[in-house]
């Protein structure tokens, strides 16, 4: 089962498998919200099998240091974002539109640095942590962005795309992207997974078909269907 825990500006997710796994840790200041979200399911940080970050931005890694201390479990992060965790900074936040430029000063805050207890690359399995799923490298938004693909057909995709503030079940490009071409290849990769539902880092979830929709409307259907290597 997948539970959304809403932070101030982004989502965390609680995966209730044989053992619980927390995906993302909100922004600095979201600790109370996360603890309340765990408590609502009878859990404390020490009950977690793993804490996993979709990437190393402050609104996803904001409480990672504190939760790593409180839980005593590893915080897992793709090796490509290890430097962000170690420095407690977002690195380059490249706005993709006017709203991104407006938002940047408000979201580009530092967070408590930490050493990730577990650095992974691609295809990291969550089975040893009691969750049927794996973690795919989906770089672009950051160098070390990753997505959790569950056996249920759901995926937690971090900031590969965002949800819509206005429309339920719709996706939108995220306001920030380090490497748009790489991000598009990551969307192609996720589209090929045939996902039922995507759970983004910002706003609400949308059906997996939105990935193909995004590729058609913004970068052309050819890339999605041509078998281009990802
Ligand atoms: Zn981000």
TrEMBL record:
What are the residue boundaries of the Metallo-beta-lactamase domain, all occurrences included?
A: 9-199
**Coiled-coil region:** none
Q: Which domain of life is it from?
A: Bacteria
Return the broad EC class: hydrolase
Q: Name one GO molecular function term.
A: beta-lactamase activity
Q: What UniProt keywords are attached to this protein's entry?
A: Hydrolase
EC code(s) of this entry = 3.5.2.6
Is Hydrolase tagged as a keyword? yes
InterPro entries in the record, alphabetically? Metallo-B-lactamas (IPR001279), NDM-1-like (IPR050855), RibonucZ/Hydroxyglut_hydro (IPR036866)
Q: SMART domains this protein is in?
A: Lactamase_B (SM00849)
Task: Check the record and name the Gene3D superfamilies matching this protein.
Answer: Ribonuclease Z/Hydroxyacylglutathione hydrolase-like
Name of the protein in its database record: Metallo-beta-lactamase L1
* Source species of the chain: Lacunisphaera limnophila
């Amino acid at each position: 089962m997948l539970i959304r825990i809403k932070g101030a500006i982004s989502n965390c997710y609680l995966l209730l498998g044989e053992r619980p796994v927390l995906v993302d840790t909100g922004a600095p200041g979201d600790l109370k919200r996360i603890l309340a979200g765990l408590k609502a399911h009878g859990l404390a940080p020490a009950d977690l099998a793993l804490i996993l970050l979709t990437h190393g931005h402050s609104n996803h890694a904001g409480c990672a240091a504190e939760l790593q201390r409180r839980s005593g479990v590893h915080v897992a992060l793709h090796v490509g974002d290890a430097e962000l965790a170690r420095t407690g900074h977002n690195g380059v936040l490249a706005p993709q539109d006017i709203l991104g430029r407006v938002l940047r000063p408000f979201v580009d805050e530092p967070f408590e640095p930490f050493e990730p207890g577990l650095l992974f690359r691609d295809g990291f399995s969550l089975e040893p942590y009691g969750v049927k799923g794996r973690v795919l490298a989906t770089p672009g938004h950051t160098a070390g962005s990753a997505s959790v693909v569950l056996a249920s057909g759901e995926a937690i995709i971090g900031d590969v795309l965002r949800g819509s503030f206005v429309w339920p079940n719709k996706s939108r490009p995220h306001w920030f992207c380090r490497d748009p071409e790489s991000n598009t290849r990551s969307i192609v990769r996720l589209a090929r997974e045939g996902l039922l539902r995507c759970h983004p880092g910002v706003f609400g979830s949308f059906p997996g078909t939105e990935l193909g929709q995004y590729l058609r409307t913004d970068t052309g259907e050819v890339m999605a269907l041509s078998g281009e290597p990802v």
